[in-house]
Specification:
Blueprint (H helix, E strand, L loop, with lengths): L1 H6 L4 H8 L3 E4 L11 E2 L5 E2 L4 H12 L3 E5 L5 H10 L3 E3 L5 H11 L7 E4 L6 H6 L2 E4 L5 H4 L4 E2 L8 H12 L3 H5 L1
Parallel strand pairs: 1-4, 1-6, 4-5, 6-7, 7-8
Antiparallel strand pairs: 2-3
Helix pairs in contact: 2-8, 3-8
């Protein structure tokens, strides 16, 4: 069974936290992308996103899980990706991510234990310390890794969101239904 394969590497505490999640908030650079930003000679920006991360978003939404982005940079590329995936929100240019997180928790009438957050750098730490299920990519800075519930096997831009989404869906008994 896929659920046993997914859940087999997690502790009871991690699975319990994942079973309570009603929203997943993502950072972008270093999480949904590998953190590289490419500009061409015309000033156009390029980023790569992982199709596996994107594909699971529709299943999260069907399962009633709120999905969105909180990122410090502003980028049309990110706006385009968020629209393509039909994310519930996309907040860019956010200097105080924790304040944005607090407003989203309140606006959507969530408890903090119901929010998963995936981040990879200093500006993510306040949320990572405060949310219900915190995660970072395998290539996050070591001092970020010490503040999260889950360090993914995947590096940034290589399936980090999919790994945590699969954990949440499996812990809630939904992943097997999706696969079938």
């Amino acid at each position: 069974m896929p659920v046993k394969e997914v859940l087999g590497k997690y502790s009871r505490e991690q699975i319990k936290k994942a079973s309570q999640i009603k929203a997943i908030f993502f950072d972008v650079d270093g999480v949904l992308t590998d953190g590289k930003i490419i500009y061409d000679n015309n000033g156009l920006e390029y980023k790569q996103f992982n199709v596996k991360d994107g594909y699971i978003i529709s299943h999260l939404k069907k399962a009633g899980i709120l999905v969105g982005i909180i990122t410090g940079r502003e980028s049309q590329v990110v706006s385009n990706r968020a629209a393509e995936l039909k994310l519930d929100f996309c907040h860019q240019g956010i200097m105080d991510k924790h304040a944005a997180y607090e407003k989203l928790v309140q606006f959507h009438k969530l408890k903090k234990k119901q929010v998963a957050y995936i981040g990879d750098d200093i500006n993510d730490l306040a949320i990572l310390r405060d949310c219900g299920l915190s995660a970072c990519p395998a290539d996050a800075l070591d001092y970020v890794k010490t503040h999260v519930d889950v360090v993914t096997d995947a590096k940034g831009g290589r399936g980090v969101a999919r790994e945590i989404s699969d954990l949440v869906l499996a812990a809630q008994g939904v992943l097997d239904k999706i696969i079938k």
